[in-house]
Design goal:
It contains 22 helices and 30 strands. It has a ten-stranded mixed beta sheet with strand order 6-5-4-7-8-10-9-11-13-12, sandwiched between helices. Strands 24, 25, 26, 27, 28, 29 and 30 form a seven-stranded mixed beta sheet that branches. A four-stranded antiparallel beta sheet has the order 15-22-19-20.
């Protein structure tokens, strides 16, 4: 409370010491002198900042409490969490030369002033905004920075003005108007049109919460943009009447019921239809369109369900028919705070009356890995809306007439075709990606060692419930009505897929991240740790909510899945019945649980990738068969086919490290047809140590020998690209510097092979190195050149002689 001694929570202590919250919990249990709580609750205790600081220093957990942490904790004493926004807003305004001290304690202002003097005013403002967002992460619904940057790329370039009518802390406005929040950078010169650096000349914002509006104003100010953020409800009391802008960006509140349906029924903004009471998002869409100049673009983050809800189909139809809805881009789950469900980005354009209405709409699926490619697709579509575009699995332009049906469903995944086919022209790239995933699969196989061979002591779930280690919830039978909110069913628990069905939330159990959901069939049990939010518990499912301090959720789910299959006898429907209270799991200490839980987590991840590979492998087989039958694909030429086959000795690992990769096709005499080319590389840390890998039992030759890296040069590939690719594949690291150091003529008799090996020295970051191909290597090590392990691969000494030889550093002409 205001005026009280400064206090901190466990999360604050973790930030101060640079550790996780689990470490703070361990300190409380293991150190008798750890300060006692001075407030808070049993589940969220508060501690004296002064006492915690003294304890951390005395224990050597920190050398000095960071200045910004001391400043922040003193600032928090000025108000409770509900009014903290006013205090932070006041500080950021004073730092920008506005306002005066009213709520901020003098000691806090003194520390913040020192921090701003050391790090810069803009840096201090960004720190305060980010820390406030972190403290209120459960209450605030903010756009993640990478999504905001992506939306900014879609809105730009060359914007003169921009509006965000639900701007929150101003993250989207800042993304459009300047560099990424917190980067401290300026927009690069010559930024491309897909870079998102639109540099809008004038910004307008509105936010219902007055404190957030002030904070958004401060964020906007540090971008150097001329702009103003006003407080108020945009739908009921528009703060910018009559203002028309080049672009609107918005992450509106989802599933609002009290958005003003009754009093706004006759509002002129509803040009495309009165939004249903349950479709508040469509009100925000039309509010955005109403504020655009003719030809202006609106980019909104929308819940995925808004693309298919039957109640909104008339408005979606009108948006399509009149050319207002131009793109719908799907994002993966957990890309928006406040929900673990998929979201979409809608891109709309206010018709300019320039003539013919576009006949196509762009549908795409995006994630951070292909944001650039999808942004390029959008700008290509914007330049020529009638052009056909089909990039399998990524983006496609769909004729609007194909969408105007009974459902008017604009969900991208249902129209891209990637779920059930691969186009012939896209097959080579698809094959390359699939082969790389198969290559990485070996690294996902969980590692385990022989155990003690005895049963562990067990405890029933009913006992764990009795002592408060978990709570148990069961859903009875009910009908899924097809409308409302996403519901997790037994099918998704068994196959790991996304929740697709919808049902009304009344009287239903809400699933929280970290919950364990158990489903039963006559063939067995399935358990899933739910890591997304926003789901309802489906019929006949069991939910276990463990206390994470006492019970690891992956440990719990992993052992439950191994229980005997429940019997279906005695049930009228024949469905299996799971009695959770009689189920048992091992009785282990939390640290030991986490060891098992970590391994079970890897098992679940391995299973999920296997399922995806089975599906995509089926797509590949189907694509080949269809392509061959229709003439779109053909068998490779004999030469290219031979190049991809393993050489003598059955080599399939593609690498004889110091001497090259597997040999080419054998002549009748058993010798290679001619020399091939490989890249051999010695990785080093720039400080004299070199990286060697021990060849495992699955290696092509000399298992147990230590060796450097190597790989074949692929068709059309440069030497540098080949080296970079091989370093990533073998060591999971990036090549920071690549230097050509020599060429070797490698002729081997057993097995027969002849390679021209171009040798490189490659600097890598030791902290990033890991075994990337465990089917080839079973150990990695850093060694001084004069203290090498044994045995060494037979070809390694000559390669290391090139590495040790004096040379002048230069960029190779490759």
């Amino acid at each position: 409370m205001p005026g009280d001694e400064a206090t901190v929570t466990a999360a604050d202590i973790a930030r101060m010491a640079g550790v996780g919250r689990a470490a703070v919990s361990n300190w409380r249990r293991r150190h008798e002198d750890f300060p006692e709580p001075v407030g808070g609750t049993a589940t969220s205790p508060a501690f004296s900042l002064q006492a915690i600081e003294a304890w951390l220093l005395a224990q050597g957990k920190v050398q000095e409490l960071p200045l910004r942490e001391r400043a922040w904790q003193q600032l928090r004493t000025a108000a409770d969490d509900l009014r903290l926004g006013e205090v932070v807003a006041e500080v950021t305004e004073i730092l920008r030369g506005e306002g005066e001290l009213r709520l901020v304690p003098p000691v806090a202002w003194k520390l913040i002033g020192r921090y701003a003097a050391e790090e810069g005013t803009d840096h201090a403002v960004r720190f305060l905004l980010d820390r406030y967002a972190d403290v209120h992460s459960r209450r605030l619904v903010e756009t993640p920075a990478e999504v905001a940057e992506f939306m900014a790329r879609l809105a730009g370039p060359g914007l003169r003005s921009v509006l965000d009518p639900a701007c929150g802390l101003g993250v989207l406005l800042a993304a459009v108007c300047g560099p990424p929040a917190g980067s401290g950078a300026t927009a690069p010169p010559g930024a491309s049109e897909t870079s998102g650096r639109s540099g809008a000349g004038r910004a307008y914002g509105q936010e219902n919460d007055p404190s957030l509006a002030r904070l958004a104003q401060s964020r906007l100010a540090v971008t150097g943009t001329d702009g103003e953020v006003r407080a108020g409800d945009s739908l009921r009391r528009d703060a910018w009447p009559g203002v028309a802008v080049d672009a609107v960006v918005c992450h509106p509140p989802f599933n609002e019921r009290n958005w003003g349906y009754e009093e706004l029924a006759g509002d002129p903004r509803w040009e495309y239809g009165l939004p249903p009471k349950t479709e508040s998002e469509l009100a925000w869409v039309q509010h955005a369109l109403a504020h655009l100049e003719p030809g202006g673009v609106a980019v909104l983050l929308m819940p995925a369900i808004a693309a298919s809800r039957r109640s909104g189909r008339r408005i979606r139809s009108n948006l399509l028919r009149r050319g207002a809805l131009q793109a719908v881009i799907g994002l993966p789950p957990r890309m928006a705070t406040g929900t673990g469900l998929p979201v979409h980005v809608w891109v709309l354009r206010r018709p300019a009356g320039e003539g013919r209405t576009p006949s196509r709409v762009l549908l795409a699926e995006a994630d951070p890995g292909n944001f650039d490619a999808v942004a390029e697709s959008w700008h290509a579509f914007r330049a020529d809306p009638e052009a056909e575009l089909d990039r399998p699995g990524e983006s496609r332009t769909v004729p609007i007439i194909d969408l105007i049906d009974e459902d008017v469903d604009v969900t991208p995944s249902r129209h891209l075709g990637a779920a059930d086919q691969v186009a012939a022209e896209g097959y080579p790239a698809f094959r390359e990606r699939l082969a790389a995933r198969f290559g990485r699969l070996a690294a996902l196989v969980p590692e385990a060692v022989p155990g003690p061979g005895r049963e562990m002591p067990a405890v029933t779930l009913s006992e764990l419930e009795r002592i408060g280690a978990l709570s148990l919830h069961q859903a009875g039978r009910f009908e899924i009505d097809g409308s409302g909110e996403p519901v997790l069913t037994d099918r998704q628990v068994f196959d790991g897929g996304r929740a697709e069905a919808l049902t009304q939330p009344a009287d239903r159990t809400r699933i929280e991240p970290g919950d364990v959901v158990v489903a039963a069939r006559s063939g067995g049990l399935a358990a899933r740790v739910v890591e997304e939010s926003g789901l309802l518990l489906g019929p006949r499912l069991t939910l276990l909510r463990p206390d994470p301090e006492r019970l690891d959720p992956f440990f719990l789910a992993g052992f439950l899945r191994t229980l005997p299959a429940p019997s279906a006898s005695g049930t009228q429907s024949g469905a299996a019945r799971f009695d959770p209270r009689r189920a048992q799991v091992p009785r282990l200490a939390p640290d030991e649980q986490r060891r098992y839980g970590d391994l079970f987590r890897r098992v679940f991840a391995f299973e999920a990738e296997l399922r995806r590979l089975v599906l995509d492998g089926g797509l590949a087989a189907s694509a080949i068969a269809r392509g061959l039958a229709g003439g779109a694909l053909a068998p490779p030429s004999p030469a290219s086919a031979d190049a991809g086959r393993p050489g003598p000795g059955g080599a399939a690992d593609g690498s004889t490290a110091s001497g090259g990769a597997a040999a080419g096709p054998a002549r009748a005499a058993g010798l290679p047809a001619g020399p091939a080319v490989s890249c051999v590389f010695v990785c080093h840390d720039g400080r004299g140590r070199i990286l060697l890998a021990r060849r495992g039992p699955g290696a092509r030759d000399e298992p147990g020998a230590w060796d450097c890296g190597a790989g074949a040069l692929e068709y059309g590939e440069s030497f540098e690209a080949a080296v970079a690719r091989e370093v990533r594949e073998e060591y999971s690291a990036e090549a920071l510097e690549v230097e050509q150091i020599g060429v070797r003529n490698v002729v081997r008799r057993d097995p027969p092979s002849h390679w021209v090996a171009v040798v490189f020295a490659v600097r890598v970051d030791p902290s990033a190195v890991a075994i990337g191909e465990p089917h080839k290597f079973d150990g990695l090590g850093w060694f001084a050149p004069d203290a090498l392990p044994g045995p060494l691969h037979s070809q390694l000494p000559e390669t290391l002689a090139l590495f040790r030889a004096p040379r002048t550093r230069s960029s190779p002409d490759l």
